[in-house]
UniProtKB/TrEMBL annotation:
GO terms for biological process: proteolysis. Keywords: Aminopeptidase, Hydrolase, Manganese, Protease. The lineage of its organism: Bacteria, Pseudomonadati, Pseudomonadota, Alphaproteobacteria, Rhodobacterales. It is an enzyme of class 3 (hydrolase). GO terms for molecular function: manganese ion binding; metalloaminopeptidase activity. GO terms for cellular component: cytoplasm. This is Leucyl aminopeptidase. CDD domains: Peptidase_M17. Belongs to the peptidase M17 family. Its EC number is 3.4.11.1. The keyword Hydrolase applies.
Length: 460
């Protein structure tokens, strides 16, 4: 298994984590030979630096890895992962220099450095192995790495191999792994019970469906809803080619909730988990839904279509209505929903919305602690009028283009009326350039923070 720490009994090379301002102090305790070697190589303790210290026989007797300055560490995450690739394939044990409070983050980053999407070409990188640092929950970190890898694999898969049926298959595989139950609604039953999911997906030869997975029989009820638009052409409001190029990732919300579900089940959290994924392809054909159509929703609300490219909120709305009917203790939706969110906070932050102040505080704190940064956005009541077109109850794409992420979140909130707590995440699910522990491509945004916030949010 690639996302595993080395056995604690394994013979391991001592690894010293060297902050830039600590190098001099560390060298003061070393031999003249070591001081000369470090000086000759130019090692300064910067993030991304690593240095092997050879023994008499030429094999490493120890190694150094740069930890940079506090200012440099604030500008990124997973500082040790930046230098892992320079340590070869030996097994290492942290010997000094790593702060206890940073050990879990850095250990996770180390494991994630071994990820590569190799379904079609290439092989996973052969990185150095690490004995889990003392004091960390090694099993939990391994589960987090596996969950992240699942999310990345799903997002990275091209739409040709990740349509609604294949997304259902991934959910079924997960359900089988953890003995969860799963049901799927499609065909005439979908058309009558989830009319907006059907309307969005009906133009594709790859049939739309609603995936419903359940696990656990005691504890608070948690429902995760993930947008599963497996490819988004924009529909009749066709996207330009430059905007369509990344639309294989428009099921990133579904991928993120499946990764989160993996972690919840693997960790055996005492919750009653439900995962709902509306899986569709927004295609162009003679029976595509049209601008100015008025759709009926499962909730009974009518929706005027002013842009067929604002389809994610439509499929989520029907799934949220179903989730709300059971009034779970917490509903969380995740979706690659709006470009407005990316304009507001860029690709590295995951905006989230909730009216629940304790939940918001728990999520924000967990995001910082778990190196899974979040940014709270407002359900801004004065913008409610923007989503009320008059001819129908709701407008799926208000004119003007302002506050697009907020109006989308307000739209979704209209479908959660009975459940006590709701949080919505408008994520990007894509890393546009390689970073330490994060390859270019699909990424998880929010699941680690949500997972860490659940004990407080649900009183587990």
């Amino acid at each position: 298994m690639p996302y595993r720490f080395a056995d604690s009994s394994a013979e391991a090379v001592p690894l010293h984590v060297i902050a830039a301002d600590a190098l001099g102090g560390w060298l003061g305790d070393q031999s003249e030979r070591t001081r000369a070697w470090v000086a000759a190589t130019g090692f300064q303790g910067a993030i991304g630096e690593a240095l092997l210290l050879p023994g008499d026989d030429g094999t490493p007797e120890a190694a150094l890895i740069g930890y940079g300055t506090p200012a440099a560490r604030k500008r990124g995450r997973f500082a040790l992962a930046a230098g892992v690739g320079k340590l070869g394939t030996a097994t290492y044990r942290i010997a000094s220099g790593l702060p206890d409070e940073a050990a879990a983050e850095e250990a996770l980053g180390w494991l994630l450095s071994g990820y590569a999407f190799t379904r079609y070409a290439g092989t996973a990188p052969q990185i150095a192995q690490l004995v889990a640092p003392e004091g960390v929950d090694a099993a939990r970190i391994e589960i987090l790495a596996e969950a992240e890898a699942l999310t990345r694999d799903l997002v990275n898969a091209p739409a040709s191999d990740m349509g609604p049926e294949e997304l259902e298959g991934a959910a079924r595989d997960l359900a089988q792994t953890f003995s969860a139950s799963i049901s799927v609604t499609s065909g005439a039953e979908l058309e009558s019970g989830f009319p907006m999911i059907h309307a969005v997906g009906r133009a594709s030869p790859r049939a739309p469906r609603l995936i419903d997975m359940r696990w656990g029989d005691s504890g608070p009820a948690l429902t995760l809803v993930g947008k599963g638009v497996c490819f988004d052409t924009g529909g009749l409001n066709l996207k330009p080619g430059s905007s369509m190029g990344l639309m294989k990732k428009d099921m990133g919300g579904a991928a993120n909730v499946l990764g989160l579900a993996h972690a919840i089940m693997a960790l055996k959290l005492p919750v009653r988990l439900r995962v709902l994924i509306p899986a569709v392809e927004n295609s162009v054909a003679g029976d595509s839904f049209r601008p100015q159509d008025i759709l009926h929703s499962r909730k009974g609300l009518t929706v005027e279509i002013n842009n067929t490219d604002a389809e994610g909120r439509l499929v989520l709305a029907d799934a949220l209505a179903l989730a709300d009917e059971e009034t779970p203790d917490l509903i969380v939706s995740m979706a690659t929903l709006t470009g407005a969110a990316r304009v507001a906070v860029g690709p590295d932050l995951a905006p989230f919305y909730t009216d629940d102040e304790p939940l918001a505080a728990a999520l924000s704190s967990a995001g910082t602690a778990q190196a899974d940064p979040l940014w709270r956005m407002p359900f801004w009541e004065p913008y409610e009028a923007k989503i009320e077109p008059g001819i129908a109850d709701l407008d799926n794409a208000p004119a003007g283009g302002m506050a697009g992420s907020i109006t989308a979140a307000l739209f979704l909130r209209r479908f959660v009326t009975d459940s006590p707590r709701y949080a919505h995440f408008d994520i990007y699910a894509w890393n546009p350039a390689p970073l330490p522990a994060r390859t270019k491509g699909g990424i998880a945004q929010g699941p680690r923070a949500i997972l860490a916030a659940l004990p407080e949010a649900l009183k587990l």
